[in-house]
Automatic annotation (TrEMBL):
InterPro entries: Glyco_trans_1, Glyco_trans_4-like_N. This is Glycosyltransferase family 4 protein. It comes from the Bacteria. One of its GO terms (molecular function) is glycosyltransferase activity. Residues 3-146 form the Glycosyltransferase subfamily 4-like N-terminal domain. Coiled coil: none annotated. It holds the Pfam family Glycos_transf_1. Gene3D superfamilies: Glycogen Phosphorylase B (3.40.50.2000).
Length: 363
């Protein structure tokens, strides 16, 4: 019985996007999860995982805090003595990778996005790239979620082990089933994301304000935790009837039942957008930005529309095009998106890729 250690920075992503992999691993292995405590930890423990509470400052740059995380990972490795380590997101990839390399423990890293530190350039980018060089050099395998991220990292550092581009986290096509397309007496748009500037919330609010005034038979919904100082603006726009803010939702499928289209105006460094994958899997057209991690999921004009980053006018134009489509055209656009994710983004592909690397068997 192998011991598998998973390093992650939050419980939500681990449960929602990697549950199927964990279930597969638990069939014949003991699985340890190292991450901060959260409401989905109980779900993961109920599956059979052994939880190790590990505090992580996800966006902090304090070197003392990061050094403490490295020490914590070293202690975990010494205690658990895993046969293999799986890591996700930047800090677990970097500091977990460095400690695995030091301990000569096999490890697989998953680059779930490069993050703002890399994308914005400057000293922080150089420092992060240097740390990636130390962390990924001896990885057994590095999974990238899009080709652009893979090309960028490989242009900066040398990776000795295997590497592969996988379809993000994939999407569970049984959980996110095709839903009946709603009648279009009132057209409902969804924004599902953390409410923060880089996720395009300002462009979405601009769009809602303009479209709602011109097309009263529209509704603009927002689902997600408010991470930045948008609380007052969301409250004000809700009171004016421009938007409906629903806060954090544990299961978004009930909102997809009323939805006609998902708008994802992000300019955040995505790995592969789970929001877009889930929306398309439910048979919903999408409008999103022309950046890696988003454009791969959309066939412009067929399954949705692609817009320029930080361009509210472009989003408004595409929303108006969508509104002028017939019911049958909107429905067909959503079904075309479902076919695309069935063909290219089935989560089983990701589970199989990990099984191949962990157990060295073809699936």
């Amino acid at each position: 019985m192998k011991k598998v250690l998973i390093l992650a920075n939050n419980d939500v992503g681990l449960y929602k996007f990697r549950k199927e992999l964990i279930e597969e691993l638990l069939k014949d292995n003991k699985v340890f999860i190292s991450l901060p405590d959260g409401k989905f930890v109980k779900e993961l423990v109920d599956l059979g995982c052994e939880f190790i509470n590990t505090n992580i400052s996800r966006r902090g740059t304090n070197p003392i805090t990061d050094f403490k995380l490295m020490v914590k990972y070293k202690k975990i490795l010494d205690k658990v003595k895993p046969d293999i380590v799986l890591s996700y997101t930047i800090k677990p990839n970097i500091y977990g990778g460095m400690m695995c390399r030091l301990a000569k423990t096999p490890y697989i890293s998953n680059i779930t996005g490069l993050g703002t530190a890399v994308e914005n350039g400057g000293l922080l980018q150089k420092t992060t790239i240097f740390l990636y060089q130390l962390a990924l050099k001896n990885a057994s395998c590095v999974f990238f979620q899009n080709k652009e991220n893979a090309d960028f990292i490989n242009s900066k550092i040398s990776i000795k082990g295997k590497q592969k581009v996988i379809p993000g986290s994939g999407v569970n096509l049984k959980f996110f089933k095709v839903l009946d397309y709603p009648q279009d007496d009132v057209i409902n748009f969804l924004f599902i994301s953390r409410v923060m500037k880089q996720k395009g919330i300002e462009q979405y609010l601009d769009t809602a304000e303009y479209i709602k005034s011109k097309y009263p038979n529209t509704e603009f919904h927002i689902l997600g935790f408010c991470e930045e100082s948008y609380e007052e603006k969301l409250k004000d726009m809700t009171e004016k009837g421009i938007i409906q803010y629903h806060g954090m939702q544990s299961d978004v499928r009930k909102f997809y039942t009323i939805s006609h289209c998902t708008i994802h105006p992000t300019f955040y460094p995505e790995g592969m957008s789970n929001v877009l994958l889930e929306s398309a899997a439910c048979g919903r057209p999408v409008i999103t930005t022309n950046r890696s991690g988003c454009r791969e999921i959309v066939e412009d004009g067929s399954t949705g529309f692609i817009v320029e980053e930080q361009n509210s006018n472009d989003i408004i134009e595409k929303v108006e095009r969508f509104l002028n489509m017939s019911f049958a055209e909107k429905k067909q656009m959503g079904l075309a998106g479902r076919k695309k994710v069935e063909k290219e983004f089935n989560r089983q592909v990701v589970v199989d890729a990990y099984s191949t690397e962990i157990f060295k068997k073809e699936v």
